Amino acid sequence: MRKFILPIALAATGFAMAADLEIHGDVNFDYGSYFDKDFDPTNAASQDIELSATANLDENVSVTVYTNTTSNVTNSDKAAEIRHGLARSTAINSANDRYTAFNFDGVELRWKPYQDVSFVFGDLTYSAGAFNYYFWRDQSRYAVISRNQTVRGIGVELGNSKFGEGKFYIGASENAKSSIEAFASYGIKLLNRPDEHLTVTPSLDWAFGSELGRSYGYTFGTELDYSKSLEVLNYSVYAVYGLHPYKGHGVHSFLVEPSMNYDIFNLGFSYFYAITNKDEGPASEQIFTEDQMLFSVEPSFNITKKFSLGVSFEYHDPDSEVSKDEFEFLGMNFYVYPTLNTNLVFWFGYNFSDDKNPVVGKTKFALGMSAHAEF
Question: Residue 196: its pLDDT value, please?
């Protein structure tokens, strides 16, 4: 690993001498032990780290270089998951899968000629309809409207947090050499009071060309985000609708995630369902998640400002047309917040399944820890 980090450090040093330099990072890593019905463990560990360096050439122009490293699923070319089932994890004794190189992940030139207008050039990544459900927060894998897509092209971002923010990107898709993609979204601030907020965000992702590199030509959807604060009572509702075609038929996805907080008590829900076309193949090929239906609920308590605990229940159904592939999960989460933008989660739980779920497999009891930090 030193062989890869040294050139990055030297490049950053030279970068810093030329301009005002900012380093940003999003670090996730975990460990888990997965026990079968005979209580034999299989240990796994993985990490997902994103680093970027931004050089502010003046007050209106900046250049950013992105890199990342992600553990691989053992004996697979897929990237490992953070805090997920054994089938998505990295064997703890597999150095080649755990310790992968830092890869170049894009470059961006940003020019802000006016107060609320920015032009961006380079590798532009977008997504729409993200989940708050903790297992599905990775937008490169899970989304209601559009998973992470990257184009090399041009974009414009406009607006502000008071009245609304929007973006438009267009460029050559990284999915295929013969595809152009365009993306547009705008968050409309219908309510923007100190104690009440309502934002509606429609978005459209469109691809065209002789080879798209994906199974759908467009996605369309709308996100609704509402929150209200009443002194010790706070509540919010996040809802998403997404539509995309699959073999000429529309696939409709729905997500509702209400939550509330009263003093030290918190309650969060997630409900997702996708309407697929059973005559066109399995649901997994038609949706941007690994379950056609998901329900989860977690009541939790803030014991101190640095510590809270919750009890979670989840129901997963990968495909409504396949019997006995669903499973239920009951677990405990212990949350620790050492400082700002940093958290640790110690968790354990039991999977109720018939060994036919593609993620949990034969795993019954599991425990582990996950860490997240941003800087």
Answer: 96
